[in-house]
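DATA SHEET
Item: assembly model
Revision: 1
Owner: S.N.
Input lines:
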Amino acid sequence: MTGPLLQVQNLNKAYGALKVTQDVSLDVHEHQIHAIIGPNGAGKTTLIAQLSGQLRPDSGRVIYAGADITGLDMAARVGRGLARSFQLTTLLPGFSALDNVALAVQARAGSSFRFFRPAAAERALNDRAMECLEDVGLSGRADRLAGSLSHGEKRQLEMAVALATEPRLLLLDEPLAGTGHEEAAELVTLFRRLKPRVTMMLIEHDMDAVFALADCVSVLVYGQIVASGDPASVRADPQVRAAYLGEEETAPC
Ligand SMILES: Nc1ncnc2c1ncn2[C@@H]1O[C@H](COP(=O)(O)OP(=O)(O)OP(=O)(O)O)[C@@H](O)[C@H]1O
């Protein structure tokens, strides 16, 4: 495939009179990290929800891997490799880290493990889950209850759960929220390491992380893309500085 992995075309969504997505068009290219930034309430989460299939747009199209997926629900999109990272609340705190990932492996695999005897199926599931934990640097915590992990480790576990769905494009909504400096740096390293395998679209308020990670940055203000391009050009855009980055010193969000 030579074109963009994801093409968002003229997307619109309103809640009554409030237009939260206004004629949004953007492309996400394979093996890149595309960040969406913008002030609180700009419509970033609503946009991601429309891309994941959680929310239907009022109009416009979502083209993924060359196919129009606008009408597909979330499960069908996950089946095609377009997944939204799970929120902390979807981790099962009373289950081990390994079990949390194994459940996602099983959900992704559907009936593919039916040819195994039960014990072998469980081993195959756990082996695949362990690979995902290794991918995110959490294999040493496999037996720990998810609820007992640190905040940063829970974020890593979310990523392992997301990876278990074998995504080609991962939608990440504020993955660094609530993390400390060191945890954030570890997650930034993890995203950079995963980039050759998984394309990512990232909503993030941590501007250091955004400008360290992103190949492309789109700026959303009142539901509209006001700038899109490489980080240096977006950072230098006067409209962006006025609408968003300039606010940072006085009103971080
Ligand atoms: N279900 C809903 N019904 C009505 N209004 C909504 C609904 N969901 C979101 N909104 C409004 O839509 C606007 C965009 O919200 P959204 O959460 O997408 O913004 P955001 O850019 O992700 O904000 P933040 O950075 O604070 O997370 C906000 O004004 C919000 O109050």
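QC remark: The first strand starts at residue 6 and ends at 15.
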